[in-house]
Amino acid sequence: MNPDDSIPTAGTFLNRYFLLRHGESRALQEGLIVGELSHGKSAYGLTPKGRKEVATSILKAMEDGLLKKVDLVISSPFLRTVETAEIAAKIIGAPIEIDDRLGERGFGKLELTSIDNYAAVLDRDRASASHKEWGVESALEVLARAWKVIEDLEGKMKGCGIVLCTHADVMSILICGCLHQNLELHAEIGPLATAELRELVLRRSESVV
Asked: Tens digits of per-residue pLDDT, 117-127?
């Protein structure tokens, strides 16, 4: 299933967007799925390793010339992403905003269960981008809210560099959406490492991932 017509199939962004996954978190360390803001807003932040990962990732991107100009860092409201954004913003020298639409994918009945259950979600994703098994937020729903962030920024900013600090599924789904690739295969663009930074590209692609 491909994204709907709300995402342009041609042209380029008015701004330059970079997606940054949070560093290693306490949730990953403990092997738990934490997709509800009520659990992840003030707990399950970054581990010491995660903090180092973020700093290393941002410094390398700057050295490589990828982050030549960054005007704003926007973060998911989860503690692990806010802490990631704070580290990135301090190194870059940019202000931070919080946007709930970049929050973690909802995992319904799988919340606070073993991270091993995530594989089952991806299996269902491969069959349907609209599935809501176990009360999970569908890939299509994630794309709709994440794309709205880009759409709103395109409407009010121009020529800016923007880092969006978010989560693995939000990243992979948004990347697929902007490339017009098969959302059922969003996980195949990975693996998305903790603290990984990727530039978001807008273009038409007839191929699947």
From this structure: 999 999 999 99
Q: Tell me, yes or no, whether 182 lies in a domain.
A: yes
- Residue ranges in the chain assigned as alpha helix (H): 26-30, 37-40, 48-63, 79-92, 118-127, 139-156, 168-179
Confirm whether 105 is domain-assigned.
Answer: yes
Contact assessment for residue 209 and residue 182, using Cβ atoms and an 8 Å cutoff: yes
pTM of the shown model: 0.93
What residues contact 107, with CB distance under 8 A and at least 6 apart? 33, 35, 36, 118, 121, 134, 135, 136, 137
Quick check: is 41 in a domain?
Answer: yes
Q: How does pLDDT run across 154-209, given as a tens digit for each residue? A: 999 999 999 999 999 999 999 999 998 889 999 998 779 999 999 999 875 444 33
Residue 10 lies in a domain: no
Q: Which two tokens stand for residue 48?
A: 């010491």
What's the domain count of the chain? 1
Give the CATH number of the domain where residue 110 resides: 3.40.50.1240
